Amino acid sequence: MAVQGTRRPTLAGVAERAGVSLKTASRVLNGEPNVAEATRERVREAATALGFRRNAVAADLARGGASRLLGFISGDIANPFYSALASGIERVARDNDLQLITTSCDEDPERERLLTEELLERRVGGLVVTPTTGDHARLAGELAAGTPVVFVDRPASGLEADTVVIDNRGGIRAAVRHLSYHGHRKIAFVGDNPEVWTFRERRAAFLDVMDELGNRDAQRWVRSGAHDAREARSLVAGLLDGPEPPTAVLAENNRVTAGALRALADVAGGERIALVGFDDFDLADLLGVTVVSYDAVEMGRRAAELATSRYDPATPPRTVTLETRLIPRGTGERRL
Amino acid sequence: MAVQGTRRPTLAGVAERAGVSLKTASRVLNGEPNVAEATRERVREAATALGFRRNAVAADLARGGASRLLGFISGDIANPFYSALASGIERVARDNDLQLITTSCDEDPERERLLTEELLERRVGGLVVTPTTGDHARLAGELAAGTPVVFVDRPASGLEADTVVIDNRGGIRAAVRHLSYHGHRKIAFVGDNPEVWTFRERRAAFLDVMDELGNRDAQRWVRSGAHDAREARSLVAGLLDGPEPPTAVLAENNRVTAGALRALADVAGGERIALVGFDDFDLADLLGVTVVSYDAVEMGRRAAELATSRYDPATPPRTVTLETRLIPRGTGERRL
DNA sequence: TTGTATGCGTTATCAA
DNA sequence: TTGATAACGCATACAA
Q1: Is the Cβ atom of A140 within 7 Å of strand D at any atom?
Q2: Cβ of residue A32 near strand C, that is under 7 Å?
């Protein structure tokens, strides 16, 4: 048992106690072959007696190259979406004997840059990033140096790199068609900030499908700027209170869905207004909300697989697109 | 720009290019004083020209002692409770210039042990653990060696160490009294497995308060074994379907609450049965569920503060108990 | 203000 | 089957 003040036992200490050289002790403790069984036993005993625990920091340095660490830069780890990503990444990390460093950049480009730098200083063997709107060209050198940098949920700007996204357009298409099939024409699209890539993708798809369905002026049904549930609530409230209230609301993400639900609960007859949300959420079944669902854990897993697979920087970047799935609950209208 | 195959630029390289010694380059790049401004400038230029990025692995090894890493062993990072903890820990880590390694042990003692070992090999400067039921006496030596190990949400067994918990008993007391105040006598307590410390605490409090209120036989209202929402649903369904259905259900955690909600939705008149849940959750307001709430992010923060504050292993372990808060929504009965 | 020398605890090379 | 010795890249007494 180590005691405070006392140094921790080292491999050299184990070797000395076992009466062998450093290299032999190393061989034994790393399970390498070509060591006599008797020697092996003596080293093991010495290690246990001293309470030896290998120093992974020293090992990483000696080995050279990357450390056995993987980096993940999320927007906010407390957000269920990001923690689902983290969960998928973690599993792949585990399978590859890597430890995962998680960080949150609060959607702040400058903070993302700082975190990237810190993780690269740690010589991570791979980096998974949910990119903010900033430019990522600065990472070109690192990519060329062989560090796999993978972007997830949205692509980086100014850089060609491996990317994992979902089929946003397909998801929106399914949602709008679902509502249309159930007779809705006045469909409002409520979302986050237009700076966000996913918002733009989803809005574009919304306009496309509405156009295909004969609604050439869908732009007037679009509302943006709802970054949290509270803002979404007032945005939807405004729609319902306006001159031409929609009969259906398409919420661009789960925060908007939550806000929309509250707005609908606030007005008389709100339960007769249909609601479809992008992103599934807990208890959506109870609230009878039809959603566009996808597997965020799988998304993390795929990203981590790209980030851990050794690759040739010369090969063109890969893009993985995951499918979405419409989960109809009722007829698009909520049944409370 | 580094190119693949090429080694990464080192401090020595920067020093050489700037025509100074290693130590001087180190001084400049670490912002230490006592360097001529001209020298400083030359070193900076050399660093930029070479695309130098310090190697944190080497720095940690050279500095000796612990690495600038913090470890967190959660049950499952995809679980909102654990990711809230992670969020709090992450903020403290950031403030202390530490990087956070997050792991999930899936509530498996053996896996927790393995993860602990791996993190200690990484020489983490602190370790936050949500302990499983296994014994933790093996960590005594590490504690004595000066690594702050902090347990959060429940105490470790077989080891005296810093711990952060919430006031489970107070929370249950408030919940039962709330229901009692609103006229309920037949209150069922539905929870997870009795192996889980928090369950035992909460059940004990439930029985105490029921006893105080004159219900001496509350044991028959206790149901356990609901580890997920599905199991909770059938457990509650069984209660409602039994010979003497309760008029109120106290759910021991948010998974049970979700299951109970579904069970109540399944039966006629279910909306007249009161429900109070331990743990607040998203959209609880919409569903009209009264809850016992507490701040999981704060819990993580407090744990991380204990794990980062240098302390004397000789001082007795500290226990931080965080308050809970009853959030009444309606009269304890749901208003849908 | 600047530099020299040594150590951190491993892994890896190459020889014995 | 084993071992001596040199990296790995930086920090830090101590000197100049």
Answers
A1: no
A2: no
B210 CB-near residues (< 8 Å, 6+ apart): B176, B187, B218, B221
Strand C bases near protein CB (under 7 Å) are 1-5, 7-13
Q: Which of B8, B51, B42, B7 is nearest to B24 (CA)?
A: B42
What does the pLDDT profile of chain A (336 residues) look like in tens digits? Answer: 434 456 899 999 999 999 999 999 999 999 988 889 999 999 999 999 999 999 999 999 999 999 999 999 999 999 999 999 999 999 999 999 999 999 999 999 999 999 999 999 999 999 999 999 999 999 999 998 899 999 999 999 999 999 999 999 999 999 999 999 999 999 999 999 999 999 999 999 999 999 999 999 999 999 999 999 999 999 999 999 999 999 999 999 999 999 999 999 999 888 889 999 999 999 999 998 999 999 999 999 999 999 998 667 778 999 999 999 999 996 455 433
Query: What count of CB pairs under 8 Å joins A to B?
Result: 163
* A178, A276 Cβ separation under 8 angstroms: yes
pTM above 0.85, yes or no: yes
Best residue in A286, A289, A295, A301 for a mutation probing chain B (most B CBs within 10 Å): A286
Amino acid identity at A76: D
Single-letter amino acid code for the residue at B241: D
